[in-house]
Amino acid sequence: MDWISFWDGAHAIYVSSRHKRLHYARIAADLARHVPHPDARVLDYGCGEALSAPALAAACGQLTLCDAAPGVREKLRERFSADRAISVASPDGVAALPDGSFDLIIANSLLQYLERPVLDGLLAQWRRLLAPGGRLLVADVIPPDVSAVRDAAALLAFAARDGFLGAALVGLARTALSPYRKLRAELGLSTYREADFLAVLSAAGFAGERMRPNVGHNQNRMAFIARPA
Hints:
Elements: H1 3-8, H2 17-32, E1 41-45, H3 53-57, E2 62-66, H4 70-80, E3 86-89, H5 91-95, E4 102-108, H6 116-129, E5 130-141, H7 148-162, H8 165-176, H9 179-187, H10 194-203, E6 206-211, E7 222-228
Parallel strand pairs: 1-2, 1-4, 2-3, 4-5
Antiparallel strand pairs: 5-7, 6-7
Helix pairs in contact: 7-8
């Protein structure tokens, strides 16, 4: 199994339906604050189930959702087929788009699943796809010193604040025995120090900077905003 297959199948990453709903609502609200103007063309690359995509779409002109998992894309098309502001594309479909297609490109909670050569290829693609003055937002980047234990503590704090602490405790115990833990041990997650990731962006032709706060509930992780240099 690889990460795409994992996310395309049934999994227990979200400890309850409330957790899942609040997670996506928080992500959409945080991302909407970075939309540069109401007519912006936005790409959410590696969007996952994007349950709150309409909230992000309401802040921009056109939202394109892209995910590598075929089953996830099919669900996205079914869920948002009636919303003309939202379109769904495969990675190949995005790669075929003309230069300057987007004003904002988002990669949230994606980099940890990418090997460096894949990331380098995507950065080159995203740079090409950004319109003049466009921006790249990369969020939820994991530093090397942030362990699964710290991630769990951040989830518990989120759960205590938003009313699903009991489900979070049960869910964390379930995750400890789940395919996610096994896959994480086998494949690992890509991690970056702040300076190292800024260097990655620079090598790809971007001028980047650390952005605070991070997108989502986990402030142990990092976010960056970048523009073509």
